[in-house]
Amino acid sequence: MSVTDNLLAFTLAATVLTLTPGLDTALILRTATVEGRSQAFRAALGINAGCLLWGAAVAFGLGALIAVSELAYNLLKYCGAAYLAYLGLNMLLRPRQSLAAAEPEAKASSNWFVKGMMGNVLNPKVGIFYVSFLPQFIPQGQPLVVWTFGLVAIHVLLGLLWSLVLIGATQSLATVLRREQVIRWMDRTTGVIFVAFATRLALSKH
After folding, report:
1. What is the pLDDT of residues 18-30, one digit of tens each?
2. How many CB atoms within 10 Å of residue 3?
3. Cβ(27)–Cβ(99) below 8 Å
4. Whether 74 contacts 203, CB under 8 Å
5. What is the rounded end-to-end Cα distance, in angstroms, of the chain?
6. What backbone phi and psi angles, to 5 degrees, belong to 138?
7. Which carries the bigger pLDDT value, residue 166 or residue 187?
8. Closest CA to 203 of 136, 133, 131
């Protein structure tokens, strides 16, 4: 794939993943409804700051790992593929029926930026996801650190845009995104994408 093809493929995949209702979506919707739009925007900034921190950790750690050991790279590749396949099959075969399990407690907070950021920083699945997902879209021979930051930046930009849409139309979108049919469809769609990328990752060459 060319550089343009990689960027387009990643942007498409990241868009679908960003639109899939999850903990971040639930946090923003609840904060906008209960605390107001300004607090919800702070939470959105915090959530994406957490993604940037994980992106930095993955960028430098991944580059060092691949440079040092072919065995470590292959181990990481197959573990990542297995993890993505597990997530994908779980969402495909057992999609959620509601967001109730992901809803955070309705408690006031004086700093929603910190709350949103720590929610991602303290979630190792974000880092594992980046390690598993991002390398598939980095063209061979390209600088890992630069490309990792670039892809994370695209993901963060999409996340911010989606957060603004959620905040701007809280009531109507909350109703739609909480529908059982929508949640099940989005989970299954994401599951198919995860399984496809798991297969691609497992078959990829260093």
Report:
1. 887 776 887 787 7
2. 12
3. no
4. no
5. 15
6. -100, 110
7. 166
8. 136
Q: Per-residue pLDDT averaged across 63-70, rounded?
A: 64
Q: How far is CA 48 from CA 67, 167, 171, 188, in A?
A: 28, 15, 23, 25
Q: Reduced to 3 DSSP states, what percent helix, strand and coil does the chain have, rounded to the nearest 5?
A: 80, 0, 20
Half-sphere exposure of 120 (CA within 13 A, CB side): 29
Q: Which structure tokens are listed for 189?
A: 């769609």
Residue 161: enclosing H or E segment and its boundaries? helix 144-168
Positions of E strands within the chain:
none
pLDDT one-digit tens code per residue, 34-54: 677 888 899 999 999 989 988
CA nearest to 35, candidates 99, 101, 104: 104
Report residue 102 as tokens: 């992901």
The three-point CA angle 30-31-32 to 5° equals: 95
Q: What is the predicted pLDDT for the residue at 66?
A: 60
Helical packing angle, 112-121 and 23-34, nearest 10°: 170
Residue with tokens 């950790």, as numbered in its chain? 57
Whole-number Å distance between alpha carbons of 25 and 29: 6
Residue 61 is encoded by which pair of tokens? 């750690």
